[in-house]
Amino acid sequence: MRFAILIVLAALLSGCTGLSREINQAMPEFLRSEPGEEEMAIFRKVRRTREWTEEDLQDQRDQVANIGRLRAEKEWPDAIARIEDFLEQFPVSKSDEKVRYWLGDAYYQDDDWDRAFANWRDFTALHPVSDYNVGLTERLYAMGSEFIDGERSTFFGLFSHRGTGVKIFNHLIETFPSTPRAADAQWKIGMYHLEEESWPDAELAFNFIVEQYDTSEWYKPALYYTAYCRYRQVKGIVYDPVMKKRAKEGFELYLSKAGDDARWREDATAIAAELNEQQAAQMLSVAEWLIDQDKPYSARYYLLSVMTRYPVSQAAARARELLPDTPGGEEGLAPEKPAADQGTAPKKEAPPKKETGK
Description:
CATH architecture of the domain at 53-129: Alpha Horseshoe
Shape: rod-shaped
CATH topology of the domain at 53-129: Serine Threonine Protein Phosphatase 5, Tetratricopeptide repeat
Oligomer: single chain
C-alpha cells in the first residue's frame, strides 16, 4: 500500500517545481522523475538572468527606453512587438513590472481588450502588490463596464460580450477586494443578472454587497434588491414558504436600515404586505383543506394561527368566518373519529390544491 502511495505521489510531483522538485530529489532513485524539456527551458532562462553582463543591463535599459518612446508616440502595434521581444529575451528583469503593465496597456490602447485582460491577469499574478494597481483597477472597471453594458460586440455586432464583463469584474473583485471599484463592479454584476431575470444569481450578487461592502453607496440598494430577487423566486401562494419568509425579512431589513433614504419604501412596503397575505393565505388553505377532510380540530389550530400571526390579513377575516363552524363554536362539526372506529384504513391526507401565480 505504501509503495502504491509513493508511486502516485511521484507521478503528481513529476511536473511540478519549487518544493516538489526537492521532494522529488528526496525520493528513492527508482521513483524520481527527470525534469521535462519545458521545465529545463525555464530553468535555463532564469539561469541566464543570473549571468547578465553590464552590456546585457545596458541593452535592457535601451530597449525599455525605446518602448517608452513608442508608447509616447502611440505606436501601439510596434510597442507590443518590442515588449514581447523584451520579455522573451529577459523573462526576469528590474523592469519586469513596468514592462508587463505596459504590455496590457498597449493592447488596451490598441483596442484588443481580450488580450489586454489576459496580460493584466498575468501581471496581477506576478506582481500582486504594485504601484500600477490603482490605474489598473480603473482600466479593468472601464473594460468590464463597456462589456457588461453591451457596448462592445463581435461578428458584425451580432454577439455581445456581456459575459466577458462579468469575468473581468470577478477578477477585479477577487484581486482588489478592498478598492472602491470592487463594490461598483459587484453592483454592476447584480444589475446584469437582474436584467437577465436570473433571480438566484442576482440575489447572490446583491447579497455579497450586503455582507462585504456595508459602507459602500450600494449597501442600501443591495438590501432592497436582495429581497426583491428572493420575492421573484416565489412561484405562488402554496409554494416556497422559506423563500417567502426570507424575502419578507429582507424587505423589513431594508425598511429598517434605509431610514429617510428609502428610495423604494413604497414598493418594499407593498411587497412585504403581499408576502404577508400569501403566508396567511397558505395557512388558511391548509385549514380549509382540513375542514374538507372532516378534521375540524386540526383545522381550528390553523384558523387560530392565521388570526394570531396575521391579524389584519384577508385570510384572518375569512378564518374568523370559519371558526364558529369548528369545535368550540356554536355549530361545531362532528369530532374526528379515531382511525380504528372508521372500519377502513385511514385516508392519507393529500396536500392542498396547487395554485399558480402570485
